[in-house]
Design brief:
It holds the Pfam family HTH_3. It comes from Paractinoplanes aksuensis. The protein is mainly alpha-helical. It has a single domain, classed as 434 Repressor (Amino-terminal Domain). The protein is 51% helix and 0% strand.
Length: 67
Amino acid sequence: MTQAHLAARAGVSRRWLSDLEAGKPTAEVGLVFKVLSALGLLVDVRPEPEPEIDLDAYLDSLGGGPQ
C-alpha cells in the first residue's frame, strides 16, 4: 500500500503520514488511531500485571529472613 493510498483511506495528509513514519514525536493520537484502523490494526491497552514477589528472597534482601 502506498503512503498516498493509506493517507486517503485514513483521512490524513500524505505529508502527515510521512512524518508519522519518521517518528514525529507530536503526532495527534486520534490521527494515529485513524491510520491504525485504516491498516486493520487494533490497539489493546491493559494494565501491566503485578509482578509475583518471592517473599523469602525479599526478606533476605532486607536481612530479615529466617534465622
